[in-house]
């Protein structure tokens, strides 16, 4: 089976793989799947929204006490020529439960003055969880955050501004303790039975974080050596993601492993804006990849089972909407805004942008 993928050097969470080519190539997956299942030492299948399950939400923080997380490990993602500094941070939460698509809050140290001039603690920043409910170790006691170090010039003064919490997290060391809250969020929750659904995920940069929790849940979690549920014949996980260049791609080795082990149920499209050109000769963004597959994408939107998730930059999502509306109107006579409204109503169109 042949799956189209953009692949040059796909960065893993601890090392880049060998450089291949800056052009697109066909990733050939063997007909026989290889196992990548991670044994889970506990059973957390009772978490979710289905009848009889427990849905964790806002257990800590706000008017409730926070909890203390401890950094287990921190690794830099990507290769030498990556565009931004991104860290893969594994945190011991003591077993605070969560489900895929949620976030944890982190409160950086220090204080600030509020609007009334009163000194108050720094406010909490939310970060999407990039691991399944079992954590990367499979014991349900950790979570993983994928954090980009925020550095930008102040538009008024030109001085360099360092994002408070992102730099705090990226500078952490194993053993450091974090004041945390959550789990929070319902906008991007993964369906309770993704092994029976067609799931389409679109991301840019660290917007890939919640989708890592998805593919870890779908392809890596193993209960007694098996997936929590068997795959239906039509089940599919399709990830379309955009990065600046090959060295900026996040979790590339892991994605390759999942693709090769699940050739019937996974698709992968990566756009590299600094290395590839779209059909008009400009930089290729993730929306250009959707445009290349527009007919299939629109078919999935019009189906009765596909579920869509978007996470990343607002301008990415706006560009995707504009492209889909044009393609739908000109080539299909389709009212895309009305269709998206229906998909949202049926909980099949999920968006989280910044």
From TrEMBL:
Which keywords has UniProt assigned to this entry?
Answer: FAD, Flavoprotein, NADP, Oxidoreductase
Its needed co-factors are:
FAD
UniProt enzyme class = oxidoreductase
EC numbers: 1.18.1.2
Highest taxon listed in the record's lineage: Eukaryota
Gene Ontology terms for molecular function: ferredoxin-NADP+ reductase activity
SUPFAM superfamilies, alphabetically? Answer: Ferredoxin reductase-like, C-terminal NADP-linked domain (SSF52343), Riboflavin synthase domain-like (SSF63380)
Q: What Gene3D superfamilies does the record point to?
A: Nucleotide-binding domain of ferredoxin-NADP reductase (FNR) module, Translation factors
Its family remark reads:
Belongs to the ferredoxin--NADP reductase type 1 family.
Query: What's this protein's name?
Result: ferredoxin--NADP(+) reductase
